[in-house]
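Take a protein:
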Amino acid sequence: MTEPLPPFTTLILAGGRGQRMGGRDKGLVRWRGEPLVAHVQRVVRPLCDDVVISCNRNHNLYRPFADQLVCDAQADFPGPLAGVIAGLTAARHAWVVVLACDAPLIDRRLIEDLVQLAVANDSAAMVRQGGYWQPMFSVLPRSVLPLLEQAWAAGERSLQKALLLAPLQALECPEGDPRLNNFNSPDLLQG
């Protein structure tokens, strides 16, 4: 029998430019009749009482899907590391699940497996697929915030590189795992 999950915050990253979507706000792009962010939020809502969305525009449209909204401290869409720093700062719980807004096929099992791996090892956990880390599917202890802030101050902008500075556990997922599909271009939304 598995241990019950501790309380955690879910941080949904939706603060990008959406360049591959022609500048459209990816989290609000509709798929199967709903914004992409709605699909992710529906999976995480039963698991946690603190959903934070990192968004840099369209706050009124994101508000119904979150308990808290955060923005990057820097202008001009500096990237996911900035969104994670803002989200960790606002998080109400010691553990934070980090997910992309454009991964509507995520499921409860993947989230639970990531949280259990992180908690069991008292360290960050991230999906690894085919030897590649997937930072948009990770669980972080809030205690990693100072390390990420130091990396940012030193000029690092890659979320993956910053997270690899901390102890990290890999949740291995097979190549082609549909739960990890990012719908980051218009042609992927046709399904």
